[in-house]
Amino acid sequence: MKRILVPTDFSEHAEYALKVAAQIARKTDAEIYLLHMLELPNQTVDAVAPGSEVPEVMFYMKKAHERFEELKQQDYLSGIPVTEAVQFDRAFEGILKISKKHEIDIIIMGSHGASGFEEIFIGSNTEKVVRTSDIPVLVIKKGDENFNIKNIVFASDFTDEIKKPFEKAVEFAALFGAHIHLLMVNTPNDFKSTSAAEKIMTDFVRNYPIGTYSTHVYNETNVEKGILKFSKSINADLIGVSTHGRKGLNHFFNGSISEDIVNHASRNVITFKI
């Protein structure tokens, strides 16, 4: 983990993410890429060219760089290489383009979640990044001066397609020497006996260089509720889930547990692309 991307709108939640990124960067000798997206009207964007002096564009760019300079003076970033960028694009699309261009290893974003009509019709940039990113996305929900992960819940059905995301989860847990709680949620429509579920999980992790872990079976009416309630019951520091990256009508009809968790969890969440 050598390159960390932190998108920022200079809000309080974005700074929560930056503070966590700084702590991880110190652990891994990583550099931080700070990105601010300017979503301007199409006609304004079309007018932007090298050397352009469109007043509105110049004003917002100047303000963004002033805010960057303020952030870079913060003590928690002292000694960490920080690269700043202002991009003209829709936020989540720009984030994905920059992550590929600079071969980013992880995206760390702040989020306060979304619900009701906002969730259905608008959604959040964080949710869209979670859905479409090929690299892990760490979603920070609250300020934490000491981001020290001890207990990670990794929720899954533990099928073969989860192997690659799980490898990433194990690598992340190893950074903190964290205990991984393997969780399988039993629902009425997909029920397994405790012994069968535990065997699936034990067989799944057998060939991984995993540190300390435990297996858990939790019964609930749906998977999202099971993950959230179990995580609360053990006071988990982080929830880990995998995402299929569904788009279009497929996403609309099938939904995504990972996006629901990102929106509704009060705890930090990390997602891994299948």
Descriptive overview:
The protein is of the alpha/beta class and 274 residues long. The protein folds into two domains: 3-140, 3-Layer(aba) Sandwich (Rossmann fold), CATH 3.40.50.620; 151-273, HUPs (Rossmann fold), CATH 3.40.50.620. The protein has eleven helices and ten strands. The protein has helices spanning 12-28, 42-47, 55-72, 91-101, 116-122, 125-132, 163-176, 194-205, 223-233, 248-254, 257-264; strands at residues 3-7, 31-38, 82-88, 106-110, 137-140, 151-155, 179-186, 213-219, 238-243, 268-273. Helix 1 (12-28) links the parallel strand 1 and strand 2 (31-38). Belongs to the universal stress protein A family. Residues 1-141, 149-271 form the UspA domain.
